Amino acid sequence: xxxxxxxxxxxxxxxxxxxxxxxxxxxxxxxxxxxxxxxxxxxxxxxxxxxxxxxxxxxxxxxxxxxxxxxxxxxxxxxxxxxxxxxxxxxxxxxxxxxxxxxxxxxxxxxxxxxxxxxxxxxxxxxxxxxxxxxxxxxxxxxxxxxxxxxxxxxxxxxxxxxxxxxxxxxxxxxxxxxxxxxxxxxxxxxxxxxxxxxxxxxxxxxxxxxxxxxxxxxxxxxxxxxxxxxxxxxxxxxxxxxxxxxxxxxxxxxxxxxxxxxxxxxxxxxxxxxxxxxxxxxxxxxxxxxxxxxxxxxxxxxxxxxxxxxxxxxxxxxxxxxxxxxxxxxxxxxxxxxxxxxxxxx
Length: 347
Ligand SMILES: NC(=O)c1ccc[n+]([C@@H]2O[C@H](COP(=O)([O-])OP(=O)(O)OC[C@H]3O[C@@H](n4cnc5c(N)ncnc54)[C@H](O)[C@@H]3O)[C@@H](O)[C@H]2O)c1
Known about the structure:
globular, binds nicotinamide-adenine-dinucleotide, Rossmann fold, six-stranded parallel sheet, alpha/beta, single chain
């Protein structure tokens, strides 16, 4: 008998990330992990055995047996799998990037509306405590810097670094700035890949004046996931990898009528750093919750399925990030074509 308190769910694609979806869903009390589905026999059997669930060789066999599914197959299959699920009455969380093309994202969003199904996109960093803990402290952002660097992954190479990696920061920045992008400057180049860009640097200007500089690389010897958000009266420093965040804000001393930073006699100050980052600017390391971002994201999805509430990152948000990613790629490609002689071009 099915338990009305639990969402019957399956994971489709249990490779590198999908097996973690299965683990989290197995641990969440309001989920009943019915099956794990994968084209690869060895992969599905191993994960099914590990989590004591049914292995499934074809996601179409899930019809009528699950209320919801998470789609964790390579990006090139997102649209086909997610659209079939929605059309067959199944709520969907599709991993990021939502799909390959803007058109596919549009269609998925419309299908979800038509069939009244929840469609959530797996922009996991929205659930990273580094962001959730400081989100309320962000007032109007004036300038944002984001760096997302890692070594070559040898996975997710059916897309370039913009769709695979930068898409996280595009989604976060769009959710923070909430203004139209009016100018894009972008450079990108392949290094190891023969088909896609491996590094990209972008400068976005928004209608409200905010500027965002974003760099993504998958050919770095470092692993970095950082964002700095400068607002009028504070600066927020986020480290998504370490799950840490700091808020730097002006102290009331700066507004005292008799205080002028240009008149400070530094010969009377023993520790200048302490003076700046204590007396003038308050530095607060934010207390961060323990919850794993993937678990928080899946919990949010299950709640939307149970309540019918719109998810925080729905089809519209997934589509907006893909649309911007395509515009960035177009600008970057135009720049590449204009400046790299034809005989040296690899992109
Ligand atoms: N949110 C994040 O931070 C994040 C991180 C990693 C990956 N991803 C996304 O997750 C997706 C999967 O990435 P991955 O690294 O786990 O890839 P992966 O190659 O490790 O796993 C994909 C799995 O899907 C299976 N598969 C392929 N087609 C299938 C089909 N039609 N039906 C059933 N199974 C099928 C493959 O056999 C494989 O086991 C990608 O879209 C990627 O962008 C997101």
